[in-house]
């Protein structure tokens, strides 16, 4: 189903939150952002979010936020529905998310990825994200997540020159695998009672 046309990207409205929650559940199961979590974080960060759609509906999203350090942004959740995977939608959505965060004076972008999710890891790596820490037991015992970071240039390169593709990103001293209580490395997002907060 669907076409091979690239997605249309647009900002997110409150009425889109149920579609995002459904896609999070499809992509990440019980570790996905719930409708309750999306409701809580929409007002402070919804301006950074993106939807990817075609004539048949919404098939991808990127939920982004500014961290406690105003120059650090987080990609909290990004997914493309299985029916639209393999068409370049993930690359388009990731590039648009990076651009949107960079336009808001953010110069470091962080995200979490499961070590065994090689497809996502390779996508992020191809954009210049590097390993910068680990969150041990982030979603419960044995549910560790790698922290990947992308350092964005704050200066435009001189005309005719390009910036270095993969700048070095220092390890965040707060992402050392310690327990998360009290750690303020990323935005704290309430989860349902049975789930940890997302950061």
TrEMBL record:
<feature type="domain" description="N-acetyltransferase">
    <location>
        <begin position="7"/>
        <end position="153"/>
    </location>
</feature>
<dbReference type="InterPro" id="IPR016181">
    <property type="entry name" value="Acyl_CoA_acyltransferase"/>
</dbReference>
<protein>
    <recommendedName>
        <fullName>N-acetyltransferase domain-containing protein</fullName>
    </recommendedName>
</protein>
<keyword id="KW-0012">Acyltransferase</keyword>
<feature type="region of interest" description="Disordered">
    <location>
        <begin position="154"/>
        <end position="199"/>
    </location>
</feature>
<dbReference type="Pfam" id="PF00583">
    <property type="entry name" value="Acetyltransf_1"/>
</dbReference>
<dbReference type="InterPro" id="IPR050680">
    <property type="entry name" value="YpeA/RimI_acetyltransf"/>
</dbReference>
<feature type="compositionally biased region" description="Basic and acidic residues">
    <location>
        <begin position="190"/>
        <end position="199"/>
    </location>
</feature>
<dbReference type="InterPro" id="IPR000182">
    <property type="entry name" value="GNAT_dom"/>
</dbReference>
<keyword id="KW-0808">Transferase</keyword>
